[in-house]
Design brief:
mainly alpha
Length: 97
């Protein structure tokens, strides 16, 4: 019983960190969009990180396997797009485009 309680306690801390990460990346995306007055690769990458973190929290908190699979599918939107936006951001930042 003690191991289950410790696992749940640690899981809540991990979820808190992930929620803070999602809010931070969302804030960075919004700040960049408002400052630049356009959506660029960095803001898209931050939005993708937000999606990834947010749906990962939902996946961790879901008690049923079907729910975990559903949230993992939504999470994949962020997972698949982060590397692409990262590459475009690096190319834009180094002015190689």
């Amino acid at each position: 019983m003690r191991n289950i309680l410790m696992t749940n306690s640690v899981l809540h801390y991990i979820n808190l960190i992930l929620i803070l990460a999602a809010l931070t990346t969302l804030g960075l995306a919004m700040h960049t969009i408002m400052r630049e007055r356009k959506i660029n690769a960095f803001s898209l990458m931050m939005i993708a990180c937000t999606v990834w973190s947010f749906f990962y929290v939902l996946e961790l908190e879901s008690p049923h396997l079907a729910d975990k699979i559903l949230w993992a599918k939504f999470q994949y939107l962020g997972i698949a797009t982060v590397p692409t936006f990262w590459l475009v951001f690096i190319l834009q930042f180094t002015q190689k485009t």
